[in-house]
Amino acid sequence: MTGKEKFKAALSPGGSAEFPAAICYHGIFLRDHWAEVTGQPWWAFFERSAQRATPPWADMIRRTGEDWFAIPGGFKHEDQQAVSIERSGDGVFLLDKRTGKQTPLEKPPVGGEQSWAAREAKPLAHGVGTLDKLDELMDRLYGPRPGSADAIFDNGTMDAARILIREFGQEKLPLAHITSPFWYCYSLWGFEGMMVGLVETPELIIHTCRRFLDANLRNIKRLAASGVEAVWIEDCMTDMLSPEQSRRFSLPWLRALTEAIRATGMLSVHYYCGRFDDRWDLLTDSGADALALEESKKGFVIDIADVAQRLDGRMALLGNVDAIGVLERGSEEDLHREIARQCAAGRTNRNRFAVSIGSPVTPGTPLSRVRRYCDLVHELGHST
Fold it and tell me: With bands split at pLDDT 50, 70 and 90, how would you rate the model's confidence at 121?
């Protein structure tokens, strides 16, 4: 079976005789392992041109050994044509030929930038108190809502995706990432504003979710039209809501996403972050084709065997191999043992299973270890 065939079978009602291998958050992996993954210069990370931006992603797809691949974000045609990377004695710059503006570039730091504190200090929607003001802000930040979905497919933002799908889409499953509408609220309100708003101004949080849902629905059409076949839905901080709040502020928008994804023929993976002790029914009611969970950490335990037994084949399940304790720091025997345990859980879920990790690959995990993990999945993931 090809990697794509494994994934499609694993996420189907019939399950798969061969489990696929996967990691998650490929952009983070590429940023943190750039020198191992590709021979391209670090500034290619900032390329606007789809042709010049895709080679590092292609190198990653070839070298990890996974059965799916993520597509990168892209830029509109006018930005691809007008913005270039220039080098001089003073450094590396993005040059916008339309304005002459030069923006200095720095090598992306391993582990990423510490931007959360700044976001919390001054949320974008701070002081917004009416629906009209909220619409005005979101129109300014994200563009006005179009009256229809016309002309959304060929604006250039999917050029890089199409290049990679043409090269790898026959053998591996093309994957895109989107954010659940409630989790997207954090980008506007910050943590405190979002959580206080649930109680004091719920109409503003609900309206924000609706706006982000609208944007996601347009994006889903664009993804499907470009050849994407699976969508990873990141869903964070909903574990901090009560079950009743989740049913009001999270689940309706999540179900709207999974229904829209299914209507296009794509598959959906709901990545739920946090513990689920008191809301198991909310996870199984998401409408997603597959559920992905974190590994045990932060004071809670998520045993993949227990999850598989609970699901009993009602939906597909992705594994949650510990990205630190096993993938990075475990011995060869530890890795072998855990993958075998994950596969056994997958059989319990009626073969509706893909071996994955619970969190992004850490900076301290070498590419060779990721490749070994994928090779072991392919070796141990056959039914007997």
Answer: low
